[in-house]
Give the backbone structure.
Amino acid sequence: MTLGGRVVEILDLPGLYSLTSATPEEVVARDSLLGAVPGHAAPLAAVLIVDATNLERNLYLASQVLELKLPTLVALNMMDLASAQGLKLDLPALSKELGCPVVGISARTGAGLEELRRLIEQTVDEPAQAKPSVTPSCSGCDGCPHSARYDWAEGVGSRCTVATPVAKGSRTEKIDQFLTDPVVGVVAFLAVMLVVFTMIFSIAQYPMDWIKTLFQHAQTITGNHLPEGDFRSLLNDGVIGGVGGMLVFLPQICILFFFLSLLEDTGYLARAAFVMDRLMRFVGLPGKAFVPLLSAHACAIPAIMATRVIEDRRDRLVTILVAPFMACSARIPVYTMLASGLLFPHSPLKAAVLFTIAYCTGIIAALGTAWLFKRTLLKGESRPLVLELPGYKTPSLRTALLTMIDRAMVFVKKAGSVILLLSILLWALATYPKSEAPAEVQTLTKQSEELKAAGKEAEAGEIEKQAKAIEEKSALNHSFAGRVGHFIEPVIAPMGFDWQIGVGIITSLAAREVIVSTLAIVYGVGSEAAEENRDSIYDSMRKATRADGSPVYTTATCLSLLVFYVLAMQCLSTLAVTRRETGSWKWAAFQQVYMSSLAYVAAVITYQSVVALGIA
């Protein structure tokens, strides 16, 4: 931020309850405040954000920060909620007790932020060390080693509170009895997720159609203004087709994170954590693993990094190994393609049910493998969860929108960089080397010319399309991509996959969602039908056939592919983070092997079972 014509960098440290250095998060925060982090100087000042609705608990951390003798400002956040609860605080008295400036703010409404900005500028220009009027350090008492600090916090809190909050109504307790019930709470959680997914499919359909139409118009323009050849094919099928095949899922990702942000802001997700903790403890996961596993629904990379809050190394390692099972945002395009695009294109409710089942399957896989690991490779008891249930409050639409925009930008940047490069690479692999047209094409071409000479233009056009389709299939078969796909086809055939799906599996090792743009390119390279009719990728996939003429994307194949992507790793970036967080490639390699093996076996069982049941 700019203060008085100079730029000041603000570093956001992890949210903590203390600086006792029990977890990596606490070590990072303490070292940052002390200037002990290599490459980072000691800060000019510290701004301590304190929950105004629970002053005494937060003063414990405040006492530790004040002891560092660092120029400190205390910002009492959620003053609007404190006021609504009937809680009144004497800020001047609190400032005197702490020996540092204190300002009341509301991050939600923006109240007090200008005053906070002024105090930061004042502290930077004229730093003054915080000097608490009472030293809250312990001196070897026989009871709790932290009792003196707690006593100090309780005393300061009582002296600076001029009005106690009104008693909470019974409504909150009744709601919590329902949402935290061991059985009803789990059912409620599943019901909430089902509603969210149903809304995702029903609401997102309109902007998805708009995006699809936009890219179809872009392909029409390039097709009409560029001569036929490799350059036009590159733009239409490689760039526009590949990236457009991904960006069409942007509305669903935006809506998902918008609703998750609203749920978190209301306080509901904390109740969900409380409910799921019972199940997690049963399978051997620590309670603190819930937050990393929940964040893994956005991306496994920050989730794995978030496991630093788990003290026990075995608990932390188990959480790292199972976190990629959670349905991250990269899986959403794959789930959408299969659930609403191929299996239930006209039934948002059925697609939402299948979407929910896919999410739950990932959770069950994570919990099941955690249970297995804690009884074999990484034996040991998990620590209990200590969780603060926030009060229910009206969610902030601004926060939800900012969260949605942030996740959307991450997705768009990936589509504009990694996916674009992979799309162009795949187009090249699917286009080269060039091969001669089969003899059947020459025969059909001759028939077309004869029909044109006889004035039968319509019949000639149909034969030309047939010849073009045969030529495209032959060219793709002989391309680099086709050769690789045919090479691995015997291995993936038991899952119901053909060589074209195999190409998608290989390219999606870089990122799961790449399979969508891969299939968009594999099924659309040089397609004259797509040039004229602009059928969606789903239409092309529904029409895809095997060598014997049978359809590729049957119910069995779609379910098998869904199961594979629910369980498979398919993310090199996640493996790199696993290696960094565990300090060894051994665990990263183990993670890749066991997840891929599980995905393969489960997909084979799914496909063969559905076929045996005779489901079309």
In short: The first helix runs from residue 24 to 34. The beta strands are 2-3, 6-7, 46-51, 72-77, 88-89, 102-104, 161-163. DSSP finds 28 helices and seven strands in the chain. The first strand starts at residue 2 and ends at 3.
